[in-house]
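Per reviewer request, we include the raw input and output of the structure prediction for the construct analysed in the revised manuscript.
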Amino acid sequence: MKKMLAFDFGASSGRAILGTLENGKLTTKEMHRFSNDPVEVAGVFHWDILRLFYEVKQGILKCVNAGEKDIDSIGVDTWGVDVGFLDEKGRLLGNPVHYRDSMTDNMPEEAFKVLSKEEIYKKTGIQFAKYNTLFQLHAFDKANYMPYKQASSMLFTPDLINYLLTGVKKSEYTIASTSMLLDPEKRDWSEDIIKSFDINPAILNEIVKPGTIIGKLSKELADELGCAEIPVVAVASHDTASAVVSVPAEGEDYVYISCGTWSLLGLEVKNPILSDMEFTNEGGTEGNIRYLKNIMGLWLVQECKRHWERRGEGKSFAELEILARAEEPFLSFVDPDDEKFMAPKDMPGRIAAYCKETNQPVPENHGQFVRCIMQSLAFKYRYAIEGLEKVTGRKISAVNMVGGGIKDKMLCQFTANATGRTVITGPVEATGYGNLMMQAYALGEVKSLAEIREVIRNSEDITKYTPEDTDVWNEAYEKFKKAINK
């Protein structure tokens, strides 16, 4: 029996999950949960990395105090693209900048003055978004941002937490692959990108494969927390990569959707596909490429909920779903990926403005706003799936949805209806499961991705949704396409 501790950081919260692998079955227990609250200081939006590291220590301490000292490994996964900088003595140079900070506004266009959009995509295979690490570094350079200018080392968020735990500086492949700094063919740093954007190559660290033990908990931390010097594993450190590890799929005729604040929709391929800039080539396990599209996801609903709470009109997600179900379908649609929805605050106002600009009925109450978002999101999934089929030549017959978003049964059913495909959901804690199983891989308890997925199928209840009212949804899909191709 092996005990593994996974730290899974999302954009709004994090958790420590203790996993036990025994007789081919994974059992889990949440040991610690905490909020992840970005902080704005002097006009810059930051991640509070020191607070997050404190929560990591609390997670270990809670295990120790619960009598769970015999932990065999620790693994960390987080969101992508964001980085922290260290000086020559390994000291942190300020809190990492949040990917939603306005510093990268218009930065892709600035970067295209250095290399064309087509050249950057050919060299990196990454979908264009203003928050990509390349554009962040270009913004830091232009703004003379001192942590970047003074840096001796750059670490992505999970790599930074691993460093704080162990003192070892490594860059795990799946998280590095989100940056637009990697050559997708070589699976290593792109010399052309580094040189063209005058990035100091000395700040870049060795890239290691997912499932690599990079070091042990430092003696100082072990003494402080009353535990052993536990091995720390560079798991599939990008949260989506961990989630994809735990997709309980068989065969190749499926897509996955890792559904949460963001929706990551894609499939696994052996080699990068560089023919369509709407899709991204990110690193996976066993040398696979996660060929996918980033879709804004449940961020729109989350921000609406926060806006209503600030106005004293707060309701739970379950209550919002009930209200949405009661509303007339297909009144209006939005493109979840429109840049106007990227920033926080007053999401209902932005949705209303979008509908007005596209000559659609403007939602008038909570239920109409949520229904508009959920229908639009389901149709955006279909739009992306059709694009994947066209590029890859594969015929997709099933959709595997994992992550916290599958708690929303309305979204799952809408996805089946909109795509006309069977939707298979589970596990909810997909990222945590993938994190734990990559630790098991590093410990030699499982030998392959196929074996990992067999463990997940043995450990998790799976739910299926079949399409309903397909003729009506097909007709509405044409309206959706008109609304987003404004």
